[in-house]
Amino acid sequence: MKTYTCIICDQPKPDGIMICSEFICDACESEMVQTDVLDAKYPFFIHRMNKIWYKMNA
Fold it and tell me: InterPro entries from the entry (predicted)?
């Protein structure tokens, strides 16, 4: 089974989604969509997701 490294948790996982050739595991995706914008972890997710935008604009 092929695994990809999640851009959020940096762990190799077999299941998740690809966004602009970057992988987000199912667990991180689930946590992100349930995180309120006022939650302390929200900025962490934004920072990690920036990898996608930086790569697109490179």
Answer: Sigma-G_inhibitor_Gin
